[in-house]
Records
---
Amino acid sequence: MIRIFLGTALASVFVVGLGLIGLAAGGSRSLNAYLTLSAILFAIGMFGFLARRNAISMLMAIELMLNAVNLSIIAFSSFATSEAFRNDGSVIALLVIAVAAAEATVGLSIVMAIYRNKKTPLVDEYDAMSQ
Amino acid sequence: MAIGPTIPFTAIPWDDALFVLLAGTLLASALAVVLMRDIIRCGLAMMVCFGALAGIYVMAGAPLVAAAQVLVYIGAISVLILFAIMLTQTKSAPARLAFQTQARPAAVAAVVLLVVVLLAIGSTVWGGGTERGDTETANVARALFGPFVLPFEVVGVLLLAAVIGGVFLAKRDRSTTDRPE
């Protein structure tokens, strides 16, 4: 438990430091700040997808990555010069959110179906194809 | 009472301070999602993460997307994931190891990807404006039901197919449940 608290505290200090760096690089008025945020979020999601054992944790990491991509879409469209591009960006982000909802539905029901057969949510115990 | 453009007694603008606060919350909760051992806490941290991201959308000038984020992600997807967590938790064998054996290479790969993407972002000159612009909801609606009406309808069909597929996959098979175990 203490390790979790220490880890979270360290992570938040690290993150606030990153935020201050981003502020020095232009703050909320620069496109690069949003893109940097999106890249960090995508990397965190990718690590979670590759490293977690639980299938539902992997799905959550996929949601993080989808959100990172959505954030970069919004950032690009919000810094576009013409107003039509800004509206298009919002529309594309809304469509991506809808597709993400469909993906979550199907992904979670696949996990439920596998769980009912194998009685475990851990993906490294799904070894039916390697036998 | 009017609030000035900067935080009182400092030269920091409000929106920069808000951005750093939201970005810090977002990244800290995202780290919590992938690092914490208790998966139900991961799910709760994910809700915080989505909320902070909705705030960032508002700051980026897309309030409709922020509203959809709150409704769809916090309202629907998080609840779905929390239910799935509760349905798949095994009491008999709690996962002692939250991470695979490949966690260390995965961390290296993620850091490498992050560095490459950050270098690409830093070295690219993006065209377009340097000023952040807001979107008006009425204009977004006109775009959604004007030039984007075909993708909109296709997404509707996709959602219907996903719902039917989800019900089909998650439905209990009669022949296996009736059999005593």
---
Amino acid sequence: MAGSFEELKFRDPARARALTDALQREVDLIGRKPVSVMHVCGSHEQAIARFGLRAAFPRELDVIMGPGCPVCVTDTPEVDEAVALAAQGARVCTYGDMLRLPGTSRSLADAQADGGKVEVIYSVVQAVELAQKHPAEQVVFFASGFETTAVATAAVVLAGVPENFSILSSHKYVPAAMDVVAEMKETSIEGFIAAGHAAAITGWGIFEPFAARTHRPVVVAGFEPLDVLAAVLELTRLIRLGRAEVVNCYPRCVSRDGNRPALDKLWKVFDVVGGVWRGIAMVPRGNLDLKPEWDRLNARRRFRIDTAAVGGSDRNLLAEQCICGTIMTGLAKPSDCALFGKECRPETPVGACMVSSEGSCKIWHVYGGHPDLRGAA
Amino acid sequence: MCLGVPGRVLTISDDGLTALVDFFGVKRELRLDIVDEPVQPGDYVLNHVGFAIRRIPTEEVQETLALFDQILQEQAAGDLMAEDVRGEIASARSVPSTEGAAAGKDQDRGR
């Protein structure tokens, strides 16, 4: 049995110091600066910010959050579709962070304030239950989340849903976005840290073709401070050695093949299709949409969605100054944005990254604006 | 949203589709459609949006629980990880206490 938290090996300060010393040695051996690596998970950024890990990273090492927040990459027209469906009388159910995500002119919170039936749910199961409870209404599940979350959506589809239930899919597929970042000409990212629990579903094996194709190593990491430090150390070692390999630093949660039953369900319901990720780019194979055989559950097929009626064709001058896309591709930091903490705050977000608890701007804002103590040292 | 939250399986429904799970003292019902391997009472599972997504191997349970225990002890409002963990626990279907007892052991049934 484990003792107090301080005694646990994933918190041990002596181990943390040993890891940070080793990390400094690796970065010194690489001999360039900065060495830039990217993680693609909001929970990793939360861990880095809340445990103050940037203070422990070498100055020459940049650990950047990439497009690891599914809410943040939900494109503006997708929000417009959900707002339009609410305006057209549907009961729109969605995960909490989606409520304040800005559309072109309006968010679902605005639609709700206008009397639209918008429901925040924690599980897709609750959306199905709402459809059962309101048989005379159309209930639309505005589905966000990466593949880990999409397997739950797939499970309810395969288990059977009421006639009046449909899905507006904004599910995204992470590996595709890593490709886009790696292939950007201006990118400085030399290696990637993959999210532990997402890889619990997909398995770490899916990153092998990516590493081979982009010549960048990938390390799968957990969320404990020492998990993150150990993964960053392994990644810098692979960069120094020039080895574009995949290493699983989270074996207690992630296997090579992942969760096969869950993946079988996912691919019975969803196809990977190209889609725009907000502020970033058209990501080939970046979206998960319902397969044609599930057309009857696809809100985009079931309804004529009039986004122009909810301002979907308007211009939003403030939003045009937002640099979320540049931040998510690692070319800028939240504190580089002119709107950060001024016009754009968690209560009045302009950009998507300030909305979600997994968005880098919100995380930086909550943990003090620029959670990198090295600059003040 | 990437964080699954660990809980201990108390009982499995007769049809095998759901489990009653204890998350740090909160009893909730989880769907078992997509869990990676069969679970039994006493096992620990990771919950994501109301579904068990992984049975946690026994030797990893303490390490996994420790992170979440510590996060949940954070009393400061606005801690993003703690909020996400609470959101995940809320994603499992709430179980009325009497129903939970009925689904549980016989000795729990009496008042």
